[in-house]
Amino acid sequence: MTMTANAPGRREGEVTLVAADGYRLGARRYEAIGPRRGKLIVAGATGVPQHFYRRFAEYASARGFDTLTLDYRGVGLSRPDSLRGFEMNFLDWAKLDLAAAVDAMSEEDLPLFMVGHSFGGHAFGLLPNHERVDRLYTFGTGAGWHGWMPPLEQLRVLAMWRVVGPAIVRWKGYLAWSCLGLGEDLPLGVYRQWRRWCRFPRYFLDDPEMAQYAESFASVRAPIIAANSLDDRWASPRSRDAFMAGYRNADWQAVDLDPAREGLRGIGHMGYFRAPAQPLWERALDWFSAPTATSAR
Q1: Which class for 173: exposed (0-12), middle (13-18), buried (19 or more C-beta within 10 A)?
Q2: pTM for this structure?
Q3: Is 202 in contact with 224 (CB distance < 8 Å)?
Q4: Which domains does the chain have, with CATH numbers?
């Protein structure tokens, strides 16, 4: 797996990651300003393009972290000309795409960290090379089961999976979320597996077809902090706890974020990486910089 810079010598620039199967991924590198504290990969959420994480990446760069963001295949800069007929497995985002980022950012003399958002926390246990990552700090990771959500959100999600989503997929051949103003369009393979996994209280960890991955999660030993906001309707603390239990041999800590106590009007599922949430970013980077994996409480 290789990484080719398009803008050599610059502190920030587009790069290309090449996954193990040869798929080329659009990514962006933010070089550390000042003394380097480590390397950092931002593992984004489902259907969220990498530019959404730009402010965080710039902030981490200013704090001394070489930072990489990427678009998973089928999304953003890694999207083909057409998603109709584009074949991929949802697991490719972790086993191939994010794994390529880990290989590209691994460097013996610097620790490697990962910040996840939603899917980013799911993906860590699926990585074939997760042992190269020293610590993971993930925001908004939880099981996608509607039963963990508030009643009104349950109805919205069930309507999406049972009515709206199937209709759009029959029409377009993929999940054309942009038609609804809900984010990036998603490949058919992602839609089908996501819909299936959301039927289970512990997401894909309860899916019999995914049973072989339980040991992959059990092999994770890196310290993890999983922070979820009390107003996150898609990934509440209860939802987080149900999923994160899969990291049964890792030293993982749960952090419940109260927006009012954080001085924020709200966080929800996307506010972790919006500009007002900068104090949350600082907390995560401080934890990476600590000599030992101390509590973030």
Answers
A1: middle
A2: 0.94
A3: no
A4: 3-289 (3.40.50.1820)
pLDDT of 173 higher than 50: yes
**Nearest CA among 130, 142, 138, 137 for reference residue 213:** 130
Mean pLDDT of 123-141: 98
Percent of the chain clearing pLDDT 70 (strictly above):
95
- Check: CB of residue 231 under 8 Å from CB of residue 269: no
Distance, CA of 40 to CA of 42 (rounded, Å): 7
Q: Measured at the alpha carbon of residue 141, what is the angle toward residues 153 and 191, in degrees to the nearest 5? A: 65
* Count of beta carbons in the 10 Å neighbourhood of residue 160: 19
How far is Cα 284 from Cα 188, in angstroms, rounded to an integer?
Answer: 34
Structure confidence by residue, pLDDT tens digits, 148-162: 999 999 999 999 999
Provide CB contacts within 8 A for 6, sequence distance 6+.
13, 14, 15, 16
Q: Which of 244, 263, 83 is nearest to 173 (CA)?
A: 83
CA distance 211 to 129: 19
Of 188, 199, 203, 293, nearest in space to 251 by CA: 293
E strands, the chain, in order: 3-5, 12-18, 24-30, 38-43, 65-70, 112-117, 135-139, 224-229, 252-257
